[in-house]
Amino acid sequence: MDTLLPLARQVGEKLKARKETVGVSESSAGGLISAVLLAVPGASAYFMGGAVVYTRPAGEAFLTATPSRRAGIRSSSEPWATLAAEQMPARLEGVAVRKASPAGRV
N or C: which end of the chain has fewer CB within 10 A? Predict the structure, then answer.
C-alpha cells in the first residue's frame, strides 16, 4: 500500500483540481483501489463510492449486470471491466448532488 499512496495522492490532486469525482467498481483488486484512494486525507472531495463485485450475483445486485448484459463476457476481462465501469455512474447518480446540499450532509 505504501508504494501506491504517492500515486493515489496524485490522482486525488488532479481530480480536485479538475473538480471531478470518481466511483470505483472492483473485482479481483478486492477493494485495494478504493482503500488506497481513501487513505489520502480529503478523499471525500472526489471519492463518491464503489463496490467490490467479485461474483455474478454481486454483479447483478450492485451493477445490474443481468445475464443478458454480460452474455459472452468473461469475468476478469477488459469487456467485464468496461461493463462495470459503465454502470458505476448510474449507480452513484445523485451522490454528488446530495453531497453539495445546503446542510452539507450526504
Answer: N
